[in-house]
Amino acid sequence: DMYSFMYNDISMKPRQDALDEARQILAGFSDRQIDVFFTGPTPVFKAPPFRCVDWFNSMNSACIDGGKQQRAYLERLRAPILDGISQLSQIYNNVSVVDGFDSLCLDDFCHTELNGRPLFFDGDHLSQYGNLVLYPVFKAALMRPATGGYLSAR
Q1: How many other C-beta atoms lie within 10 A of the C-beta of residue 2?
Q2: pLDDT tens-digit map of 30-47
Q3: Taking a C-beta distance cutoff of 8 angstroms, is the pair 87, 149 a contact?
Q4: Are 36 and 92 in contact (CB under 8 A)?
Q5: What's the pTM value of the predicted model, to 2 decimals?
Q6: What b/e sequence results for 82-119 when a residue is b if at least 16 CB atoms lie within 10 Å of its CB, and e otherwise?
Q7: Three-state SS for 68?
Q8: What is the bridge-based pairing of β-strands 68-70 and 109-111?
Q9: Using one digit for the tens of pLDDT, what is the confidence trace for 47-102?
Q10: In b/e form, how buried is each residue of 8-25, taking b as 16+ CB within 10 angstroms?
Q11: Within 13 Å of residue 43, how many CA atoms lie on the same side as its CB?
């Protein structure tokens, strides 16, 4: 259970420390009127897609259903991270959260491919095509100053 692994009492202390440190650093950026953009977490898949595309690996137990994950599970997994960076964007009006999750997860399941092309190279790193899918979201965000809010596009 990845959620329990990432969000237990032991792992929460360093995460809170990092959030406190980020507040101090961002105060300096805010004083200098420097815009900051955090990216929302992308999906994390159980199996690395590049290992599961070949016919001889596709029957590996790690690859079964490895090309998709339930959207609700991935949203739950990333929610505490989004909460932390959203808190920062509410404190500092020069901080925005740019989130391409909706462009990568179009329905109840997030898939490692879109239109027959790989969105991810491994379990959590975008492919070249995945970056191209997210490009409009980031371009739109960078074309306007930070608003201290949450920016998403599909």
Answers
A1: 12
A2: 999 898 889 999 998 887
A3: no
A4: yes
A5: 0.82
A6: beebbebbeebebbbbbbbbebbbeeebbbbbeeeebb
A7: strand
A8: antiparallel
A9: 788 777 777 877 787 776 768 889 999 999 999 899 999 889 889 988 888 899 99
A10: eeeeeeeeeeeeeebeee
A11: 34
